[in-house]
Amino acid sequence: MTRVLVPTDFSENAWNAIQYGVRLYQNTPCVFYLLHVHISKRQENSGDTFANGMLFELPQRVSRKKKLEELKESLEGCFENPNHRFESLQVNGLFVDGIRRAIAEHQIDLIVMGTKGASGLKEATIGSRTGEVIT
Fold it and tell me: At what angle do helices 58-78 and 12-24 cross, to 10 degrees?
């Protein structure tokens, strides 16, 4: 079974990436892991690790967990496919660290993610988060 990681920030770009991945692998048994990584303001400013960041922002974590579950339910309703299963993952921490952790814990085969693009750089063809993941 193919394990696909789909980072999401609940944006339209993330939704498009999820749809693309589901359609691309429509004939392949897959588990799609919907991952939301929340970076707290404290972590952005000080470089804190997962453990430190997890102590803060409990109400927001609950809200994001609900959004992940709603996203999972939407996908199950929109893409009824016996070959596919959807799982939601929520991590508080640094973006790339969260992806690395998910890859290790769930033996991920492929990452499908949306991007807004240039992030202010005309020469860039991918977003900064996508670039971080590729690197």
Answer: 40
